[in-house]
Amino acid sequence: MVKTDRRRFLIGAGVAALASTTSMKFVFAADRKALKIGVNGLPSSLEPINGISNTGPRIINQIFDSLIRRDYFADGAKGNGIKLVPALAESFERIDDKSVRFKLRQGVKFHNGIEMTAEDVAFTFSSERLWGDEAIKTVPNGRNFSPNWDEPVVEDKYTVVLRTKTPSYLIEKYLGSWLGPIVPKEYYKSLGAVAFGNKPIGTGPYKFKELVANDHVTLEANDGYWGEKPAASTITYQVVAEPATRVAGLISGEYDIITTLTPDDMALVDGYSDLETRGSLIENVHMFTFNMNQPIFQNKTLRRAFALAVNRPLMVESLWKNKASIPNGFNFPHYGASFDPNRRAMEYNVEEAKRLVKESGYEGTSSPTTRWATTTPMPYQP
Fold this sequence. Notes:
Elements: H1 6-9, H2 13-19, E1 33-39, H3 57-63, E2 68-71, E3 83-86, E4 89-96, E5 99-104, H4 118-124, H5 127-131, E6 153-156, E7 159-163, H6 171-175, H7 185-191, H8 193-196, E8 206-212, E9 216-221, E10 232-239, H9 243-252, E11 257-258, H10 263-270, E12 280-281, H11 300-308, H12 312-320, H13 350-360, E13 380-381
Parallel strand pairs: 1-10, 1-11
Antiparallel strand pairs: 2-3, 4-5, 5-7, 6-7, 8-9, 9-10, 12-13
Helix pairs in contact: 2-3, 11-13
């Protein structure tokens, strides 16, 4: 059985999952020791953009830092705060509706001992690395996950202006997201995106040590970290595919933290006095889309009928034990001023769905050959 003092070292099973979608760092108020985390999978790459997934950021966010970070616990928030605060940038200011100036911290070192400068920041968000026609051959989502970037402008060694070609007040939010990790220009260019993803270097509190595909990733403490010092000597992310096996490993003490629990697993773990689970609604939705190449779905009335026939309340209750929620569209509080709290959530109305099917003229004479659906509940990630 696990010892009760594990609680002092752990932040709870949910922290690893929360860190998988945030910029949280593993910093523990305890003696330095090795930390072992049982995870559901590993990313195919540790290149920050190529590693965006439900398994990548929990590792990437320990290796890399961003100019701005989102403080998930600002102003008393419980893991869902939206305040943006300086990180690698000591300060930032709006110049106009298309550009933001960043003053960088001086003396910050990449894991290879080379100082981070404005040249590294500019390269990180340049067409050469991220969004140009050649760049997207090896970083396919670099353009998809970006605003309409223009080339950055380096004003001096520690000052850089990031710009968009069209007005955007989301620049800061992008930089506090998965798009934000800063990479070392010369090292990245010497390897290329693919090789960099197998041997990454950042400025974060932990340094890459080892990657064994489909088995584990090990990081080691970066004792020269510019911020709060890492308290674990190493972090090993060990793949444990089956949720029940992850839970058993946590209970036995084989793993210090585990990720991606089912609601039933959470109830089991919470039954132990020296263990706890934590989780949060994530700003994402499970969804299917209508295949508009199917003639049947070109009828808007019929599409509306299908949407009304999805029993989202039952999904929330049966799949997530009422821990999930039904989203009101792609409409999240972190959108800031554009968030509409009064927008209605997706509705379940079988009778109205039946009426619309009749109105559409559909008589069931043909059936789609591909899946359909619309926005489904916002998942809860433990």
